[in-house]
Design a protein that fits this description.
PH-like_dom_sf, alpha+beta, 8% strand, PH-domain like, two-stranded antiparallel sheet, 7-stranded antiparallel β-sheet, 597 residues, 15 helices
């Protein structure tokens, strides 16, 4: 219903724009009002006629209420369209005659807008072109038909005339048209077709038949038409009829003037068409099967038969798929393609504007950069001038510094040579000291070994002295026992004498052992003397190395042996006793002596 409403609005728009408008664009009050009435004027008549043609009840009170206004208030041409949508077009159901509706609108606008110059087409053909224009025009106001639709229409008319299409001629016309406007109005399209510019060599009747054929296809939805024989349902006789195929029906008439309609074949998705073999003297037969009836039809020849079967089958397939007729579907695709191209063009223009804006911004940035570069170049030139001046000053200063540097360098080279010599001497002295250090380490090792030998001999001497002390204590004890034995009685004297003899023998043995210990002590003393000599030799070596190190600036501090305690001499010879040990031994001997007394 939306598409139907748009088609109706286009025709009504032509009729409405034919009204007399004052300079401000308002509808003349004389056309809105009759004598004292508000809605009985032109718009009232127009609304009544539209309702009559569209089979819609007319409500004059609603019209008066819609245009209620005082004499001074504006009543513009925009006020009628809301009324038309609300009170007329919303009630349209589609059960009206499109041709009669369009003819009424045509009558209202043709006299004012149709060209006065003579045309090669009749007024009836001009009316049909006007209706075709409303079908092919864009859905925006004021209505125009774009060059693509003009080319489509002219091609259809040229094909219907059986002539060849002049593409080059139309391309030149299209170029000239695009330079001045977006498209043509309905009246300019009628002038273009009526001028014969694209139908040269064709007579008026051929052009009229071609326009009528295109009108039937695009406006009346006639997919195919022609004479064929139809078999009757009651008397079974064959009668010639004029068949007209539409998207949802096949109507058949007595003749092609369409005045005496004999019936309709209602098509739907359940119908089918099939070819029949020749019978009863009839050829080129086919049958149309519907739910309630079947129709047997005979074409004039095999070609017509095949064309009708194919056309009917295509129509049934479209009904099954729920698709519109081919010409309406093609128009919708062309519109969608134009909308897509327009959207792409708008997007391209937007991108171009963005690029242009970006380019302008870049130009501004480049100009700013150029100015900055010029300023930088000026500053660089000034700085270069200062730099050159500074460079001359620096060169002079550098020459002086260079001379001074040469002198300093010579002095440094002399110092380096002197330091190299000193370093060599120092390295030689370090090598000598390292050699001395190695020898000193060897001497220290010898001294350490001598001290270890001395310690061993000392321990041996101490052990011998302890054994000697034990023997002396034992002898003293025996001596005391002898003294006690002398004081005993004579009875015991003999026994004591015997014991004395035994003890004398033991004493002799002990004396022998003591002599043996004396020999061992002498041997230990001789070993001690040898160790002492080695130690003195090592001490002398250490002292000589110490003098050498002190002579070499004291780089190495010698490790000296510890202090030695004075040796003590006993009646058996020198021994390694300390004073504290000797005092302890003396106290022990005195105690033993006191006990024996």
């Amino acid at each position: 219903m939306v598409g139907l409403k748009e088609e109706l609005l286009k025709s009504i728009w032509h009729a409405f724009t034919a009204l007399d408008l004052d300079r401000s664009g308002k509808v003349s009050k004389s056309q809105l009002k009759a004598s004292g009435g508000r809605g009985a004027g032109f718009l009232g008549v127009l609304s009544h006629n539209l309702c009559t043609v569209l089979n819609v009840p007319h409500d004059p009170v609603a019209l008066e209420e819609h245009f209620r206004d005082d004499d001074e208030g504006p009543v513009s041409n925009q006020g009628y369209m809301p009324y038309l949508n609300k009170f007329v077009l919303e009630k349209v159901q589609g059960n009206f005659d499109k041709v009669e509706f369009n003819r009424m609108c045509w009558t209202l606008c043709a006299k004012k807008n149709l060209s006065k110059s003579p045309l090669l087409i009749s007024d009836e053909d001009a009316f049909k072109v006007w209706v075709i224009f409303n079908f092919l025009s864009e859905d925006k106001y004021p209505l125009i038909i774009v060059p693509e639709e003009i080319e489509y229409l002219l091609k259809k008319i040229t094909e219907a005339m059986g002539a060849g299409w002049q593409q080059e001629q139309f391309d030149h016309y299209k170029i000239a048209l695009n330079t001045s406007r977006e498209g043509l109005s309905a009246w300019e399209l009628i002038d273009l077709i009526g001028s014969g510019q694209f139908s040269k060599g064709m007579d008026r009747q051929t052009v009229s038949m071609a326009i009528n054929e295109v009108f039937n296809e695009l406006i009346l939805d006639v997919l195919k038409q022609g004479y064929m024989l139809k078999k009757g349902h009651k008397r079974k006789n064959w009668m010639e009829r004029w068949f007209v195929l539409k998207p949802n029906s096949i109507s058949y008439y007595v003749s092609e003037d369409l005045k005496d309609k004999k019936g309709d074949i209602i098509l739907d998705g359940n119908c089918c068409v099939e070819a029949l073999p020749d019978k009863d003297g009839k050829k080129c037969l086919f049958i149309i099967k519907c739910l309630d009836k079947t129709f047997e039809i005979s074409a004039s020849d095999k070609k017509k038969k095949q064309e009708w079967i194919q056309a009917i089958q295509s129509t049934v397939n479209l009904l099954r798929a729920g698709r519109p007729p081919p010409h309406k579907e093609a128009r919708q695709r062309r519109k969608e393609l134009r909308q897509k191209l327009l959207a792409e063009q708008v997007e391209l223009e937007r991108q171009m504007k963005e690029l242009q804006a970006a380019n302008e911004n870049k130009q501004k940035e480049l100009e700013t950069v150029r100015k900055q570069l010029e300023a930088a170049a000026a500053r660089a030139a000034e700085e270069e001038k200062k730099r050159l001046q500074t460079q001359v000053e620096l060169q002079d200063r550098f020459s002086l510094e260079l001379e001074r540097e040469k002198m300093v360098r010579q002095k440094m080279e002399e110092q380096v040579a002197q330091k190299s010599s000193e370093l060599e001497q120092y390295l030689q002295r370090v090598r000598e000291l390292e050699e001395m250090y190695k020898q000193l380490q060897e001497a220290l090792e010898d001294e350490k070994q001598a001290r270890q030998d001395e310690e061993t001999v000392r321990k041996l001497q101490a052990r011998l002295l302890e054994e000697e002390s034990a023997k002396r204590a034992e002898l003293e004890k025996w001596h005391l026992q002898q003294q006690q034995t002398i004081q005993m009685t004579e009875a015991e004297k003999q026994e004591l004498e015997n014991q004395r003899m035994m003890k004398e023998q033991a004493l002799q043995v002990a004396m022998q052992q003591l002599k043996q210990l004396e020999l061992e002590r002498k041997e230990a003393l001789e070993q001690y003397e040898e160790v002492k000599k080695k130690l003195e030799t090592a001490a002398n070596n250490t002292k000589s190395w110490k003098d050498k190190v002190a002579h070499h600036e004291g780089l190495i501090r010698l490790i000296e042996p510890g202090s030695k305690n004075p040796h003590l001499i006993t009646n058996w010879g020198p021994a390694a006793f300390t004073e504290a040990e000797l005092e302890e031994r003396q106290r022990s001997w005195k105690g033993k002596k006191a006990t024996s007394e």
